[in-house]
Amino acid sequence: VTHLASGKTETGLDELQDVAASDTGATADLALISVHLRRKEFDKALAAIDKLEKKQPDKPLAANLRGRVQLAQKDTAGARKSFERALAIDPQHALAIFVRGLVAGSLGRPEEALPDLYRAHELWPGDANILAELCRFSNTAGLRQHGAFVDRIGLIDPLTAISALVTSSYHWTGGRFEESVASARRVCEMSNP
Q1: Which of 4, 47, 75, 115 sits between 20 and 30 A of 175, alpha carbons compared?
Q2: Distance in angstroms (rounded) separating the CA atoms of residues 73 and 142
Q3: How far is CA 131 from CA 10, 43, 120, 141, in A?
Q4: DSSP 6
Q5: pTM
Q6: Contact at 8 Å (CB) between 165 and 139?
């Protein structure tokens, strides 16, 4: 890692690969995967994920990471299969449920996306990112609970731009333009302190 930080990338990568190969834990593997992803070396990241999965065949981490790489490659069908694999290993893996819902939503299937986003929110009720996506999809689907989700995100995460942006969008679509502009101003203030 020291070599990577000092700019000796190839030496650092070689050493990291050696450590990942000899270590029974996942830390070096995760660092190696992260480096490959930052460099957009998706094939190398997938190869490193395969090695991680051999170390941890009973954990959803590798399948979840593979799905995220496949999303970066715009392989939504492959990503969905990877998230399904992660959920076969651990049906309560909230991150896999959440991202599977995002994939379904990006494919224009809100009827598949919403149950996953609801479930992820149940498992991680305090996560503002999950709640923001649930707000967005519930608004798109015209669900009556949309306002309750917006209120909840304001309670969970009142001081962040994502909360103010969701609130602004909610008020705008409801025709409450003054409230929408006030929330939008909060986003600008948070972005430019």
Answers
A1: 115
A2: 31
A3: 41, 32, 9, 15
A4: T
A5: 0.69
A6: no
Task: Give DSSP secondary structure letters for 124-190.
Answer: STT-HHHHHHHHHHHHHTT-TTHHHHHHHHHHHSTTSHHHHHHHHHHHHHTT-HHHHHHHHHHHHHH
93 torsion bin: left (phi>0), alpha (psi -120 to 50), beta (else):
beta
Distances (CA, A) of 50 to 8, 125, 134: 25, 32, 32
Can you give the three-state secondary structure of 37-96, one letter per residue?
HHCCCHHHHHHHHHHHHHHCCCCCHHHHHHHHHHHHCCCHHHHHHHHHHHHHHCCCCHHH
* Cβ proximity of 179 and 149 under 8 Å: no
Cα distance between residue 70 and residue 84, in whole Å: 13
Q: Which range, of 48-57, 61-70, 94-103, 123-132, averages the lowest pLDDT?
A: 123-132
The confidence band for 189, taking pLDDT boundaries of 50, 70 and 90, is: confident
